[in-house]
Design a protein that fits this description.
Layout lengths: L1 H5 L5 E4 L3 H13 L3 E5 L11 H7 L5 E10 L8 H18 L3 E6 L2 H10 L5 E3 L6 H9 L3 E4 L9 H9 L5 E3 L21 H12 L3 H15 L5
Parallel strand pairs: 1-2, 2-3, 3-4, 4-5, 5-6, 6-7
């Protein structure tokens, strides 16, 4: 946290991938004034989500998002695709009821996610760790979602993704670390951490032709708009 604040990263969301991790995230939110929490159930979690417990936890004042949730159809051995979709719809329903945004994981299931999002009227959120090309970016933007970019954009092979960064509307662009994963190319092989968000931010500012300070102002405004308790 000290390193993050020193680097200028002053608003963070600790995201849960199951009930225990979500509870830990809420505890971090109460312990650090710079941290808020996400309550989620990752699509590759083998256990059934305790929906009642997640619903109750998500009412905590520090919770700003239902996530990480989503679909992962590429991982061998994960829950069946149909079961993932069922769970996702249940979690979307919690988000809609509590008027919270969602942070959505996608791997090999973009069309299924679009279908599920469109079925839940009023659902808002962000496509976490976005890595697709512009045609898919446009479709998620068209349903009102934000796009969140991490160190993946620094990979030499990701020119198409950098084009998405350039074209994304300014008021729909978010940045993340996905710590301890998602490092920028220059830090490959070491655990990621919130302070390293600046690595991604520097490239985003360069790609969009703005200063780092201008990007920081826009990112702060975007985060407050989507994650409304983070003011």
């Amino acid at each position: 946290m000290q390193q993050a604040v020193a680097a200028g990263v002053t608003r963070l969301i600790a995201v849960g991938v199951n009930l225990d991790r979500s509870s830990n995230a809420v505890s971090l939110g109460h312990a650090y004034q710079e941290v808020w929490a996400g309550v989620g159930h990752h699509p590759l979690e083998p256990s059934e989500p305790d929906l009642a417990a997640m619903h109750a936890l998500a009412k905590d004042e520090m919770v700003v998002v239902i996530g990480e949730i989503g679909l992962d159809f590429e991982h061998v051995g994960g829950p069946h695709n149909d079961l993932q979709v069922q769970r996702l719809n249940e979690l979307f329903a919690i988000a809609t009821e509590l008027d919270l945004p969602v942070s959505v994981h996608n791997r090999g299931a973009a069309q299924e996610l679009l279908t599920a999002i469109s079925a839940h009227h009023g659902l808002r959120g962000v496509m976490h760790y976005f890595g697709l090309e512009w045609d898919w970016a446009q479709r998620f933007l068209d349903v009102g979602f934000y796009l969140s970019f991490a160190g993946l954009i620094t990979r030499p092979s990701r020119e198409a993704l950098r084009e998405v960064v350039k074209r994304c509307p300014a008021d729909r662009l978010l940045l993340e670390t996905d710590s301890p994963y998602g490092n920028a190319q220059k830090r490959m092989g070491v655990p990621n951490r919130p302070a390293y968000l600046v690595d991604t931010a520097e490239l985003v500012a360069e790609l969009r032709g703005i200063s780092l300070e201008q990007l920081a102002d826009q990112e702060r405004a975007n985060a407050i708009t989507l994650f409304q308790k983070m003011k």
